């Protein structure tokens, strides 16, 4: 069976992976450079410039006081003939000292004004690039991971061999079976594998769960399509970072798990549970509860996931959200 075209397509997907990673690196580098420049500018204004003009105010204030004293002395003391002395030079010096003092005070005021203005602009900038930052940090790696899974499945698909028999009928039958197998493979490309039955804790088990300091689980990546679904499905019962979620004490970073939300059992309970898809997790392992603020990774991304309404479930495979659903 000719495979050239399919192999070429897989190579193009591999090239796309490389391009996506280079794009991500370029974007992350540019965003980091801009953030670094902004941070250095704020530090320069808040420390160097603020300190410099405060010291200039002190120095120029001393010069101003000397100029005032010189003028006062000239006015008080007479010259050798008993006549008042000329104070023209002293008045000029005083005028210059006053102007320099006013300049330093204005400069310090400007520095502090621009610090506030720059910080406001930085917040606006971060808000405007937030979606891009999330995309390059989370969605691009998720897309690369999905491409990797797709290429693995496609390579298995094109490498399938059709059994050959002496009989034409048997050959046709075998070819049909081969094509059926390929259809199953193509279905597998697009459909997540069936998880093992989930062990859901009872309300009593959730209420009596032992507090734990943290959970060893990665923040999943979210595709743009799933992100839109989450935004649409966002509930009216947002979680508080001090609330807790329940899971098994033996849960670690797993290839597959499900986030499930039920009605909270108390004020500290968010209603969320982390349920393993792995049959290796002992069924008698203790249930524990951890605070949401202890979850590793992007807090904003966790907030997006955990604000889904009660009776929501989020299916995660290989670190990527593949499905969200809502069941009463």
Helix and strand layout, with pairings?
Layout (H helix, E strand, L loop, with lengths): L3 H73 L11 H71 L9 H23 L12 H5 L2 E2 L12 H10 L10 E5 L7 E6 L7 E8 L10 E5 L7 H8 L5 E6 L2 E7 L2
Parallel strand pairs: 1-5, 2-4
Antiparallel strand pairs: 2-5, 3-4, 3-6, 6-7
Describe this structure in words.
This protein has 328 residues and is of the alpha/beta class. It has three domains: 153 residues; 31 residues; 124 residues, no CATH class. The chain is 58% helix and 12% strand. The longest helix is centred in the first third of the chain and has 73 residues. The chain is elongated and about 115 Å long. The N terminus is likely disordered.
Q: What's a quick, concise take on this entry?
A:
With 328 residues, the chain is an alpha/beta fold. Helix content is 58%, strand content 12%. α2 runs antiparallel to α3 (168-190).
Quote the beta fraction.
5-15%
Task: Please mark out the parts with pLDDT under 50 across 5 or more consecutive residues, or reply none.
Answer: 1-7, 165-180, 182-196
Q: What proportion of the residues is helical, as a percent range?
A: 55-70%
- What structural class do helix, strand and pairing data support? alpha/beta
The rounded Rg comes to: 35 Å
């Amino acid at each position: 069976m000719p495979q050239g075209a399919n192999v070429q397509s897989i190579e193009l997907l591999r090239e796309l992976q490389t391009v996506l990673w280079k794009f991500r690196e370029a974007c992350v580098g540019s965003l980091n450079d801009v953030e670094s420049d902004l941070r250095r500018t704020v530090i320069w204004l808040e420390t160097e410039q603020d300190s410099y003009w405060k010291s200039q105010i002190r120095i120029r204030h001393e010069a101003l006081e000397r100029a005032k004293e010189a003028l006062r002395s000239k006015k008080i003391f007479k010259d050798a003939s008993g006549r008042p002395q000329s104070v023209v030079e002293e008045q000029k010096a005083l005028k210059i000292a006053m102007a320099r003092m006013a300049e330093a005070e204005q400069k310090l005021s400007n520095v502090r004004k621009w610090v506030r203005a720059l910080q406001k602009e930085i917040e606006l900038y971060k808000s405007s690039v937030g979606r891009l930052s999330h995309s390059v940090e989370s969605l691009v790696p998720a897309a690369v991971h999905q491409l990797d899974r797709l290429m693995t499945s496609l390579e298995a698909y094109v490498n399938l061999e059709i059994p050959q028999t002496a009989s034409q009928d048997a050959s046709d039958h075998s070819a049909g079976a081969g094509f059926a197998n390929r259809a199953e493979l193509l279905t597998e490309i697009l459909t997540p594998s069936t998880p093992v039955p989930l062990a859901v804790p009872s309300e009593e088990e959730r209420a009596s769960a032992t507090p734990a300091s943290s959970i060893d689980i990665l923040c999943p990546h979210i595709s743009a399509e799933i992100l839109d679904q989450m935004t649409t499905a966002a509930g009216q019962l947002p979680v508080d970072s001090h609330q807790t979620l329940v899971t098994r004490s033996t849960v670690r970073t797993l290839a597959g798990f499900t986030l499930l939300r039920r009605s909270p059992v108390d004020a500290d309970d968010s209603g969320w549970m982390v349920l393993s898809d792995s049959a290796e997790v002992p069924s008698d392992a203790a249930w524990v509860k951890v605070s949401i603020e202890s979850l590793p990774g992007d807090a904003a991304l966790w907030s997006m996931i955990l604000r889904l309404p009660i009776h929501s479930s989020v299916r995660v495979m290989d670190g990527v959200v593949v499905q969200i659903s809502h069941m009463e």
